[in-house]
């Protein structure tokens, strides 16, 4: 709770929240001397792989029916396959009587997989908490992140983000300045920022409260460019800003904002239920690429252990 209070956008908060929930239920079970309180935890842990595999496969079918098949839409299927491989790899290596070095390598990969799935579960839980907790603040700037166009019109995903930003603007007395953020892709007629600005004008937002940021092509650039733009416009030293994006993208956006020194909260628009798993898996992979060091540490320990065991065996 202290870590959340001081900086809610830290990645480590996801693990603190996960272990807080688990230990609180365990402590309650011991305090009341009622074993059944821990039963849901045990059942979830025991059945979660099967539940996750079935859920991902069902979601894959639903996604393909609604959106069609593509490589990016195959993430639920790949995730289910990864769980199956993770559980079967080490037993298969032992049954096949592979050399000790290879068994150790498979074991290290299994530990990496355990960290991956633990991180995924923790981040999924905490990102929900981060989005759900109310923030009673008034914002000076409302940054809207781009998400692709259909011709010169907003895609449904992007329109949802702009509508969420507009609702916030209305709720706080139409006082904030919008910062639509997104450049022009190679297959786009206009920039995403300009398309969002046109949509905002059609909703009645005056030009004086719209400042376009149309040079960015990634989330990271969105944040840096918007940060610098707001710094040049703000009359106060520490203006309050909010980053409006899709709900699955909120926590990564907030994390990146912290990394670039942008003092801003995250606010999410709703995503279609069938698309959320694919989108969140993609978000988690992007976060894992930035926090790669636990995997490097695990494999480094395997290398060190292999060298030591080999040396001891040669000495014997």
Summarize the structure.
This protein is an alpha/beta fold and 316 residues long. It has eleven helices and six strands.
Descriptive notes:
- The protein has eleven helices and six strands.
- The N and C termini lie far apart (52 Å).
- The chain has two domains: 155 residues, no CATH class; 131 residues, Rossmann fold (3-Layer(aba) Sandwich), CATH 3.40.50.
- Helix 4 packs antiparallel against helix 5 and helix 5 crosses helix 10.
- The protein is elongated, with a radius of gyration of 23 Å.
- Helix 9 links the parallel strand 5 and strand 6.
- By secondary structure, it is α/β, with parallel strands linked by helices.
- The mean pLDDT is 87.
- The strands form two sheets. It has a four-stranded parallel β-sheet with strand order 4-1-5-6. It has a two-stranded antiparallel ribbon with strand order 2-3.
């Amino acid at each position: 709770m202290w870590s959340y209070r001081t900086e809610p956008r830290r990645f480590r908060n996801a693990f603190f929240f996960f272990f807080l929930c688990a230990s609180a239920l365990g402590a309650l079970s011991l305090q009341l001397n009622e074993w059944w309180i821990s039963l849901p935890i045990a059942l979830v842990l025991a059945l979660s792989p099967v539940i996750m595999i079935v859920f991902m496969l069902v979601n894959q079918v639903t996604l393909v029916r609604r959106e069609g098949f593509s490589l990016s839409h195959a993430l639920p299927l790949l995730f289910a396959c990864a769980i199956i491989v993770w559980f079967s790899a080490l037993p298969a290596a032992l049954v096949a009587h592979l050399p000790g070095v290879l068994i150790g390598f498979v074991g290290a990969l299994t530990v990496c997989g355990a960290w991956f799935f633990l991180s995924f579960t923790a981040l999924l839980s905490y990102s929900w908490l981060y989005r759900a907790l109310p923030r009673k603040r008034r914002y000076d700037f409302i940054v809207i992140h781009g998400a692709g166009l259909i011709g010169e019109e907003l895609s449904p995903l992007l329109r949802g983000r702009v509508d969420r930003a507009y609702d916030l603007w209305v709720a706080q007395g139409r006082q904030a300045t919008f910062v639509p953020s997104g450049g022009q892709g190679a297959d786009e007629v206009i920039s995403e920022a300009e398309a969002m600005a046109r949509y905002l004008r059609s909703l009645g937002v005056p030009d004086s409260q719209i400042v376009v940021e149309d040079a960015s092509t990634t989330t990271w650039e969105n944040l840096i460019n918007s940060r610098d733009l707001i710094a040049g416009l703000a009359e106060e030293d520490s203006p309050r800003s909010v980053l409006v994006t899709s709900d699955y993208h909120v926590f990564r956006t907030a994390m990146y904002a912290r990394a670039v020194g942008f003092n801003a909260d995250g606010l999410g628009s709703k995503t279609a239920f069938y698309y959320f798993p694919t989108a969140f898996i993609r978000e988690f992979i992007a976060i894992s690429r930035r926090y790669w060091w636990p995997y490097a540490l695990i494999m480094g320990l395997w290398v060190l252990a292999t060298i030591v065991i080999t040396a001891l065996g040669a000495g014997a």
